[in-house]
Design brief:
Layout lengths: L2 H31 L6 H23 L6 H5 L7 H20 L1 H22 L11 H19 L1
Helix pairs in contact: 1-2, 1-4, 2-4, 4-5, 5-6
């Protein structure tokens, strides 16, 4: 890999870390919003409404092409579930975070993400690049399990 490629990858990892921090802030913000939005479902709705307005503004500012009916109508059925998965995630964290705290919640979320990622990559499901499971990758997930347990119980 070239030096430029390494710098780009490093920058992308920093962005990913910032996104992870943002998810933690989102948990706290959405959980607090439920106090003002008639409960967790209302808070999730507000979150997605604000997100939609924000994405429209970003799309307009970037002068990016708007999704067209022709392209959207040709998307596989399962791609539409991505938005529903996001909504269920937001609703779930709003309900769960006050009960167990954001640390254990996000440790479990990361464990679920990594476990699903291993399966998606191993089998190449949903168009993901094939990357076989090996001992080192399984060890990584087991270390996440250990970390989740430490965060939850100590």
């Amino acid at each position: 890999m070239s030096d430029r490629g390494r710098r780009v990858n490093a920058a992308l990892l920093v962005c990913a870390l910032a996104l992870g921090a943002g998810l933690t802030l989102q948990v706290a913000m959405n959980t607090r919003m439920r106090d003002f939005a008639a409960g967790p479902v209302g808070a999730a709705l507000v979150s997605f409404a604000v997100g939609t307005v924000g994405m429209v503004a970003i799309l307009a500012a970037a002068r990016a092409p708007w999704p067209g009916a022709a392209g959207l109508s040709s998307a596989p059925w399962w791609t539409w579930a991505g938005g529903l998965m996001g909504a269920l995630y937001v609703l779930g964290v709003i309900v769960i975070a006050p009960r167990i705290g954001p640390g254990p919640l996000l440790a479990a979320v990361v464990l679920g993400q990594m476990s699903a990622a291993l399966l998606l990559e191993h089998f190449g499901w949903l168009g993901i690049v094939h990357h076989p499971v090996n001992g080192a990758r399984v060890l990584g997930v087991l270390l996440i399990v250990a970390g989740a347990a430490l965060v939850r119980f100590f």
